[in-house]
Amino acid sequence: MKILVTGGAGYIGSHAVVELAQAGFQPVIVDDFSNSQESAVAGIEAILGTKVPVHRIDCGDAAALRQVFETEKDIKGVIHFAAFKAVGESVQKPLAYFQNNVGSLLTLLEVMKEKGVENLVFSSSCTVYGIPDALPVTEATPTKPASSPYGRTKQMCEDIVHDVAGAPDNQIRTILLRYFNPIGAHPSAKIGELPLGVPNNLVPFITQTAAGIREKLTIYGNDYDTPDGTNIRDYIHVVDLAKAHVVAVQRLLDRKATDTVETFNVGTGHGNSVLEVVQAFEQASGQKLNYSIGPRRPGDVPAIYADATKAEQVLGFKTETSLADALASAWKWQQTLAK
Predict the structure, then answer these.
(1) What positions does the domain NAD(P)-binding occupy (predicted)?
(2) Helix (H, G, I), strand (E, B), or coil: what is residue 156?
(3) What is the Cα–Cα distance from 200 to 223, expressed in whole angstroms?
(4) Which tens digit of pLDDT belongs to each residue from 272-313?
(5) Does the pLDDT of residue 171 top 80, yes or no?
(6) Do the domain assignments include residue 112?
(7) Is 140 within a domain?
(8) Has residue 337 got a pLDDT over 80?
(9) Residue 264 to residues 139, 171, 183, 330, 338, Cα–Cα distance (Å)
């Protein structure tokens, strides 16, 4: 069965394409490569030993997206990754984030409806919870004002999906996957996180610092109300996260969804501070990191991690990879890039 993967050359998308193919699906990549690189497709194909269809288009271009559906024919579902994703950048460029993230979803839903494609897995985020009153967060945790324009785009996209689901003529069924913090790389080290320019995420900045590409790592704030003063996040290995998408797609295709929109947290259920991640990386890699403490970064939430019970009980999904192993895979990937 053909599954369209928007943003399929991106970090999470590329790993999802691999897992889909290995599960027997036929992934079709749509990506404009504005925030990804062609080498990711080569890595995917090296892992799979086969070519994967790639359409280089902007998901906000309805005519181009429509053409993909017509060319590929018989697409049974869509995983929608395509979005800008840097919290700090979204504070600087809010209009670009609203236009790209919200606009691309509107276009996709319009074309899916037109072409009769009923199944959608949407890439959401734990940022929809804002600054939660209690941890861990469950799917029933109230969404609060987002701390960044990026978070607001994800909230708006979720609202759009729910409103579309409530329309009398709606045929689309959606699973919203609220990600926590994906890290690491495929065990083959043929695909991994490929930030363009200075990384916005913690782990690639760590690995680039260890590799000597960056002079030092800046930890943004050590005065948060957490045990060691640094931010706490739920770090999930990207391959585990990719596997969750395969499970979600299968659930939709098997008509097992109990509602037109279902929501699942996808995390480990455990939080680690920035300093804990630094220390775990040093142990996993044998590299000593040069780091310093800087000011807080706009848009950062002090602490958030998942209650992953629903995903385990309903989807049958549970993460498998430890923080140490995920960090070791990220370091292996970084070393591959240096060759």
Answers:
(1) 4-327
(2) helix
(3) 20
(4) 999 999 999 999 999 999 999 999 988 888 999 999 999 999
(5) yes
(6) yes
(7) yes
(8) yes
(9) 6, 21, 19, 26, 37
**Average pLDDT of the segment spanning 78-104:** 95
In a domain, 60, yes or no: yes
pLDDT at residue 338 tops 80: no
> Do 100 and 60 touch, CB atoms closer than 8 A?
yes
Total domains present in the chain: 1
Residue 97 sits in a domain whose CATH number is: 3.40.50.720
Annotated catalytic residue within 97, 129, 150, 305: 150
Alpha carbon distance 155, 122 (integer Å):
12
Tokens read off for 242: 């990719």
Residues 167, 197: Cα–Cα separation, whole Å:
42
Domain extent at residue 116: 2-183+235-266
286 in any annotated domain: no
DSSP 240: H
Q: How far is CA 93 from CA 31, 98, 305, 330, in A?
A: 21, 9, 27, 29
| Residue 150 annotated to the active site | yes
